[in-house]
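Session log. Operator J.P. requested a structure for one protein chain; no other inputs attached. Running the standard single-chain path with token output.
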Amino acid sequence: MHLQLWFVLSFLLLANVLEWKQQPFGYQRFLLERVRKQRSPKGQIVRYVSQSMPIQEALKRLYKEKQTIYMIKEKGIQIEEHDLLRYWYNDYRSEMSIGEGIITLMMIDSSASVW
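Structure written below.
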């Protein structure tokens, strides 16, 4: 009886550890799917973010099946999730915040607009 319990517990522990190690890859797959996917018809969510917020933190606020639009409080600029994801994969620098580089990049881009 105890031997069976140890086998089950060790299997569950191993399965959870392996799944925990794969978590960042699942997040990257989710982000890549969002880059490839066209606009979601199920709705939009508007997120108000600070210009000092890191891009990585802003991307953690994505919802499945809904498009996220980021509104930068200090500048009054609207950035769509697709533009932010495109910047993340093309020109990413880990220390970059939204206010340092994205705003000027998005002002040039035709998809950015002012409130």
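Operator note: The helical segments are 2-36, 55-59, 81-90, 98-108.
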